[in-house]
Amino acid sequence: MVDLRHEPTDADIEMAAFLEQAQIPYWVVATKADKLSKSAIGRQVQAIAGDLGLAKDNFVVTSADKKTGKEKLFLSDFSSIDNFLVISTKICYTYENI
Question: pTM of whole model > 0.90?
Answer without folding.
Answer: no
